[in-house]
Design a protein that fits this description.
Blueprint lengths: L7 H15 L14 H13 L1 H11 L6 H16 L5 H9 L6 H14 L1 H6 L9 H7 L6 H11 L6 E4 L4 E4 L9 E3 L2 H5 L11 E4 L6 H9 L4 E6 L2 H13 L5 E5 L11 E7 L14 H4 L2 H20 L1 E11 L8 H10 L3 E4 L13 E2 L11 E7 L2
Parallel strand pairs: 4-5, 4-7, 5-6, 7-8
Antiparallel strand pairs: 1-2, 1-3, 8-11, 9-11, 10-11
The structure holds S-adenosylmethionine.
Amino acid sequence: MNKWPMPDKNRRRLFNLLLSFFKGELKEDFFHDSPYRKFYRKIYFETFKHLGFIQYILTSYLKKETPIESIAALTLGTAQILFLSDIPEYAAVNESVNLVKGKQKSLVNAVLRRIASNKEAILKQYSILYDFPEYFIDRWKNKFNNQEDFEKFLKSIHEKPEYYLLEVDTLKPTPYFEDFDKKRYYPMDINSQRIPLLYEVKNPQKILDCCAAPGGKTIILSKKYPESKITAMDKSRERLILLKNNIKNFSLENVTPILADFLDYKFNEKFDFILLDAPCTSLGTIRKHPEVVWLKNDKDINKMSKIQKRFLDKALSLLNNNGILIYSVCSLEKEEGINNINYIINKYKNVKLLKPTIPLNSEEKDFFYTPFHLSKGDGFFAAVLTKTE
Ligand SMILES: C[S@@+](CC[C@H](N)C(=O)[O-])C[C@H]1O[C@@H](n2cnc3c(N)ncnc32)[C@H](O)[C@@H]1O
């Protein structure tokens, strides 16, 4: 681990991240690229994991009109004092004070000193239930028979995420290691790797990967079905560049990338196998991206669910009879998963749910489902559909 104090640039970056979060402008975790990654990711993780509890504590120390810069600095400081015991308290206080200007310095200093001296009493109030937004607690609490199991589920979200690589030639998952050979391995979540392989498709001639970029699943489709012609579409220009890099890097000769909006694009062919790895809320990735749970809400889930239905309708219209459609989302919310499948099955009498052909280690028998307490990887839902005449 890098030594404290953290270089000023990175401390400021964390502060800016929190600031954009409180302003409602944060879009994604941009902490992948720093040489100080290990250290500041640790602070970033503890801050977002415990954001609910930290806000609850801070509310009792603050007046209503506290400037947003102070809230951001106090949030970072409190996370370090309460949850990162290897950072000296004086450093957590001083460095947080340095993040703000003028009168705000004395406010941040006073509040953090009080929090540091009350640390023990504060931590006695801690409960995992504070760490998640209300909408998330409401969605999940009734899925468990008792409070203990529910809390176990929440704690499993806070477990250290495990990172994996895909060994491209063998299609085997390998635990992540530093300085891996980029021509041989591709970083990819362990559950994500299983999705294109959920169903053994017999000699598909034409495959469509509707939302393909950056291309993890395209790599798997290409290696698993080398004789097939694969169309890999994505509407994001930046992400399609990443897909093209992967096509080149792993010599995926049977893949044609297309920059287009899947919902608008006029296809003049049908497909034997379609992978619809649909855009989603990404709420299944909160172990690796703890900010996501704070950036989404019920409205976003319902909005995504509606869009996903449109993707499913269109994908089915492009599927040959007896073709296979795999639908997947990195979300465990029922609106994005099973409800969408039920919608499709009720709407089309000629569409059937098929059991995945790979062994499932899931709670559900008919589809792929990887809730946090049962899996080390991301939370995915995936189902296999077929269409008859
Ligand atoms: C879950 S990600 C796909 C991940 C990818 N399958 C992989 O394994 O690397 C969803 C993708 O859908 C793309 N997308 C969103 N709306 C789209 C649309 N209307 N048409 C095509 N692609 C879209 C996004 O740009 C994003 O790359």
